[in-house]
């Protein structure tokens, strides 16, 4: 997935954004347009962004999970509010919703890899892994506790597990196989889901 799709702040849905979302998800154009309509109804009309409160309302209505305290919605929003301005754009919104909807191990690992591959080269660099771990940690434990976790060291440990230096990159097959073989590593990317 390329960085450019996370930078879009357009109040309208363009062909380029649709193409990027289709290329980086399993969504059809029709599904993307339906999500966009929901995004617009949730507060994205006008400036192309929704606030944390607007996201909470959407999340509560659509997630179908017990999140009375809003912790999951908070963590999800924080992980995808990449510039920390208190708003997410449509592309960030889509990835936030997709991140919470994956349930089987292969889909979760595939999605994790696609999210990490911000350069779009089909490989994960050390910096891409570290950036992902920062977001995933916020998603898992919240912003305050995440600030106490050394994601650089975690990324170093993962690269050592894959027998890679910081200058090397891993491909999707290496990543998925490694996560399935190492239960502890798999849990980092799948949460509490069992490896199968």
- How many domains? The number is 2
Mind telling me which CATH architecture of the largest domain this is? Answer: Orthogonal Bundle
Order of helices and strands: HHEHHEHHEHHHEHH
> Reading side by side through the largest sheet, how are the strands ordered?
1-2
Number of helices: 11
CATH H level of the largest domain: which superfamily?
EF-hand
Percent of residues in β-strands: 5-15%
Poorly predicted runs of 5 or more residues: 1-10, 192-196
Give your account of this protein's structure.
By secondary structure, this protein is mostly helical. It folds into two domains: 87 residues, EF-hand (Recoverin, domain 1, Orthogonal Bundle), CATH 1.10.238; 86 residues, Recoverin, domain 1, CATH 1.10.238. Helix content is 61%, strand content 5%. The protein has eleven helices and four strands; from the N terminus they run ααβααβααβαααβαα. Strands 1-2 form a two-stranded antiparallel sheet. Helix 4 runs antiparallel to helix 7. The radius of gyration is 17 Å and the shape is globular. The two termini are 26 Å apart. The N terminus and C terminus are likely disordered.
Which key features would you list for this structure?
196 residues; mainly alpha; Recoverin, domain 1; 2 domains; two-stranded antiparallel ribbon; two-stranded antiparallel sheet; 4 strands; globular; lipoprotein; repeat
